[in-house]
Amino acid sequence: MTTIRDIARALGITPSTVSRALSGNPRVKEETRRAVEKTAREMGYERNVVAANLRKGRSMIVGIVIPRIHREFFSNCIGGAESILNQAGYSVLICQTLESVEAEIQALKTLKNYRVAGVLLSHAINAPNGDHVKEILGNTPLIQFDRVFPDLPGAKIVGANCDGAYKATRHLIEAGYRKIGTLAGYMTSQAYVERLAGYRMALEDAGLPFDEKLVYYNTIVRETGYEAGLKAIKAGCDALYSAGAFSALGAIDALKEKGIRAPEDFGIVGTANEGFTALMTPSLSTLNQHPFEMGEAAAHAFLEGRLDTQVIPMELIERQSSNKNNTWQK
Amino acid sequence: MTTIRDIARALGITPSTVSRALSGNPRVKEETRRAVEKTAREMGYERNVVAANLRKGRSMIVGIVIPRIHREFFSNCIGGAESILNQAGYSVLICQTLESVEAEIQALKTLKNYRVAGVLLSHAINAPNGDHVKEILGNTPLIQFDRVFPDLPGAKIVGANCDGAYKATRHLIEAGYRKIGTLAGYMTSQAYVERLAGYRMALEDAGLPFDEKLVYYNTIVRETGYEAGLKAIKAGCDALYSAGAFSALGAIDALKEKGIRAPEDFGIVGTANEGFTALMTPSLSTLNQHPFEMGEAAAHAFLEGRLDTQVIPMELIERQSSNKNNTWQK
DNA sequence: TGCAAAGATACAAACGTTTGCACAAATCGC
DNA sequence: GCGATTTGTGCAAACGTTTGTATCTTTGCA
Known about the structure:
2 copies of one chain form a homodimer.
Chain A: H1 4-11, H2 15-22, H3 30-42, H4 49-56, E1 61-66, H5 72-87, E2 91-96, H6 101-113, E3 118-121, H7 131-137, E4 142-145, E5 155-159, H8 161-175, E6 180-183, H9 190-205, E7 215-216, H10 222-234, E8 239-242, H11 246-258, E9 267-271, H12 276-279, E10 285-288, H13 291-304, E11 309-312, E12 315-317
Chain A binds a DNA duplex through α2 and α4.
């Protein structure tokens, strides 16, 4: 592989000038710059970023740490972040934690070892707090998105969880459902705490009672959603707001098993507009969290060195599963 | 940050010994090794992999280049590869091409610049051939999966495309459908060529005519699947084998629009067992390509330096969309 | 006891860049 | 035309590892 030394030798100048020429330093004559660029092209020069990173003490890599890559929500976040970061010359190193705090710690250590320029993090659901993050990352810029530790410093990109849950619940009320339970997530995560708050607020604003017994905690996957769905049916619910998408799917499994018609006899609204929600029968009303935009916002926050918290709105998508009077068209 | 020099100084030895001790070189006394490990821990030492990579001329990073991360097929491949590679101490750098050859070239260059230890590639659909890959990558180990250039050297992990398409088509024939078209993909990709061949073989083995007019090329997304679906209906087809999953979805859109019942009057089998295929109505019969296993196989091929081609079997999952007599249970 | 072999560590040169400082040449103001 | 500033390059020291070779010490064996 050709190095800047080779180019320097070929032109009878020093490597430093070549380096400066290639990195666009203004202290180099336009003429030399062109000559350098020309021979660099001719000799097939490719910059060794590893060496450059070592010298500079930081790399042009941004680490992204997420629970699972094959959740559409997260893969869209990645897509959004990657598009912005690539344009700015960064590459992304992606680590899955599979919801394990140990894997998260390992991933952060790896990223630190690679001296990444920054880390975009959505933490594992059962992480008790952000202490491990702070300890490992030190002063590496940290941008949290979706699942954030509020006490950790740095930029945060969050969904309008409370508002979204409020909209979803109010929608169920307006559709005519009356005993509305909720598939709540893990209270270790701020996002789910807020969704629960929004759900509660909507009930109370409508003069409906908030019943702690109708809150089914720790349900974010299909299986637990199914089990909670059975319990909700037994408890006499006629609707559920689900803080997740897959748990809502599980609840619909439960309805089908019990022969309960949705939306006529039971309404459901989920969160996270995963692709399947539009395709299943009944199609699932959900909250669109705009994951691509969240990823973009996280990338921008990193690039601009922002430290504030941005809230991405959530939008209700009304589909069949919450349409009590069954007037669904198309 | 503490370096091996600091540790060396603290112990009155040289950095080289510290390096050897930490990397498990047998030429260092057990006693020294323990001392080094102890002080390393005490001083909070974190190995600078960037420096190590520079010296060694290669990194412990494996690049993965794929068309789109949010296709379940690819995100599962990544998941499979990542799990194996992480265990072996590698990290993965992921690049999306969004089916653009230019982006693919850029991604490969970036990976080369990072001196990655190897590249796992599934090429953009409209890449004419693998010349750009060979030119950029040079002697960096290349493992191709799913979408491969047969003429490029190195390991390849492919699905049993021909066999899978054969199974799918034969299944439609056995179910009682008679005029079976196909939503073929792009003939620039070996995988789709083979699927078309399997489809044709199944027809001919059953004594049914192969009709070039019923082959709808370049359909792999929902929109083109929909359009091809309309054409197939007009042409009098009563079934389709789709070489993709999203195109099959589009074809079902077309059927619904025309009021044609599936599976009673029209059968469909797709490829790529995306999550939605099991959830939609009618649920879509598909071929499971075992993407997670493909990713694992690619990672193993890299780690073991294999150069051969492995074929991952495809398994037919019979669901509603191909069940002509509508005897679907559960 | 002596000598060879093996065992453990030190030395120093890389790896390919970047960058502060020095220095020469060119430009400028007066 | 002279000192002061600007402009363009060169020099050399990093950045933190790894590793081939050399050196020193210990061990084993006759």
